[in-house]
Amino acid sequence: xxxxxxxxxxxxxxxxxxxxxxxxxxxxxxxxxxxxxxxxxxxxxxxxxxxxxxxxxxxxxxxxxxxxxxxxxxxxxxxxxxxxxxxxxxxxxxxxxxxxxxxxxxxxxxxxxxxxxxxxxxxxxxxxxxxxxxxxxxxxxxxxxxxxxxxxxxxxxxxxxxxxxxxxxxxxxxxxxxxxxxxxxxxxxxxxxxxxxxx
Length: 199
What we know:
The structure is a single chain. The chain is α/β, with parallel strands linked by helices and 199 residues long. 37% of the residues lie in helices and 25% in strands. The chain contains 8 helices and 9 strands. α1 packs across α2 (47-56). It is globular, with a radius of gyration of 16 Å. 35% of the residues are buried.
């Protein structure tokens, strides 16, 4: 039996039963997919790619710079019988080895606050996205960060230094995206900000 860490607050979630909250959060992004191929930036446990393959029949390329995440995501995808629909790759998102204008949709789900250079990652996401393609970013807001990374508030210096997690300034990201997007919208929920951009 394989267990994953759930983003709905649960600790050990059986991989054989997709959490309703986990699925719905990702469907908010996937419902807006219009163009392919799809790039998932920041594999984590593979959940976004798995939902895309299982519920939408999409083939996905999913990248993560952590080999352990890629290994776990592959195992999770096999457990859901969608392993052949997802190409998991150990790749640094600050230097994505694909040509300009390659992907129809590029998605980052709760990833940027884990990265050392989030704006460089966003630049790369836009570079590999096709003209009129979509770049979609879901990021934790302050309440979401408290929920999922509460230890940050108890030991902020130690936590950021060891795990490189910090709240992403959505206002700075918004301004940055305005300079590289032809169209942009944001939807706020209790714990997240969902940004939808057209290149």
